[in-house]
Amino acid sequence: MDFLAALTGSFATPCAENPTVAMIEAAYRHHGIDARYLNCDVAPTDLGDAVRGAWAMGWIGFNCSLPHKVAVIDHLESLTPAARLIGAVNAVARRDDGWVGDNTDGRGFVEALRTAGVELAGAHLVLLGAGGAARAIAVESALAGAAQVTVVARDRTVADELADLVAANTAARARAEVWSGSYAVNPQADIVVNATPVGLYPDVETMPPVDLDTVRPGLVVADVIPNPPATRLLREAAARGARTVDGLGMLVGQGVLAVELWTGVRVDPAPMRARLTEIFGAG
Questions:
Q1: Which of 2, 96, 208, 251 is the most buried (most CB within 10 A)?
Q2: CA–CA distance from 196 to each of 9, 44, 153, 160, 265 (Å)?
Q3: Is the model's pTM score more than 0.85?
């Protein structure tokens, strides 16, 4: 009998509201994988020690969330092409030659859209925000067939940088817009994505400044925030006839990819989504 479980987890701060631990452990139980997932509150000044400690303790991998997705790169031995292109890491796997950083956020988002029946091919995608999640979503959505990506951010330099990254490395057209005041959704947009943390628990009644009068029936509005799943933005958009995609889909999608990186097992997303639904009481 073997009492040594494989160790995985997450490094972030704050982290108490992150439901990934419940989701990943549901997958482990469902598939009989002898592993544990530890939710660790790691301050920026302690990130290097945490990464080295995980290696010393034999961890097989870990996630990184805010504010560590870029800073963790300095503590890794190598990056996948996706992580190098995006410039951020959210999933790290143990390999013989050291830690390898990957980015599964964008692929998780793409899978969430597909699961919801949303077609990316030929779509005009508008991204609210230009941080780590936005970079991953912009790149992977363009690689998945989006025809145009519009990056909306308050910092013009950051928005331009992401638009240039997409244009230089994918077949999609890309442009930047400065986010000033309440954003009016482009009438040509097919999909609008909140890739900012606005609306995350406990600030559940906040929402990114969007002109709701420009949200039309049939527009797809997605949010990266998993807690709560039904953000105020999604509730307001649904009330105006928009199709909505919550942040749980992206969370589950990237979780499936992370577990496969760590264990080699392609887990069933259904128990993961079911566990999150149990926690939040939302589908």
A1: 251
A2: 23, 20, 10, 17, 31
A3: yes
- Please give the angle made by the CA atoms of 13, 28 and 18, to the nearest 5 degrees: 20
Catalytic residue among 69, 75, 135, 232: 69
Q: Kindly report, residue by residue over 251-281, the tens digit of the pLDDT.
A: 999 999 999 999 999 999 999 999 999 998 7
Helix (H) or strand (E) holding 56: helix 47-56
CA distance 151 to 148: 10
Q: What SS3 state is found at 140?
A: helix
Whether omega before 14 lies within 30 degrees of 0, making that bond cis, reads yes
Conformational region of residue 129, where left means phi above 0, alpha means psi within -120 to 50, and beta covers everything else: left
SS3 of residue 236 by DSSP: helix
**Mean pLDDT confidence for 191-204:** 94
Q: What is the DSSP string of 242-282?
A: -EEE-HHHHHHHHHHHHHHHHHS----HHHHHHHHHHHHS-
Interstrand relation of 98-102 and 91-95 (parallel, antiparallel or unpaired):
antiparallel
Concerning whether 69 is annotated as a catalytic residue, the answer is yes
Q: Supply the pLDDT for residue 249.
A: 94
